[in-house]
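Hey L., structure's done. Input below.
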Amino acid sequence: MFEANQRVEVDLSNLTIQGVHFSQNVRKAPGTIVRQTSGDPPVYLVELVFSFKGIKRVEVPEDRIHPA
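Output:
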């Protein structure tokens, strides 16, 4: 379980988000938890430190998020 404002690393490898496909190398994208958006399975909205092709916020499952 993650808390709002918690610093995390997100594994975006091989995901397509808002039409942007992330390569297998994007395994430790730094970010901050904004909020939990779903409970079953747990999904979180994460604000990334860096923008990837205009993507600054992503929704990712809990198993792709790791404490920083």
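Strands lie at 7-10, 16-17, 20-21, 29-39, 42-52, 55-61, 65-67. The longest strand covers residues 29-39.

-- N.
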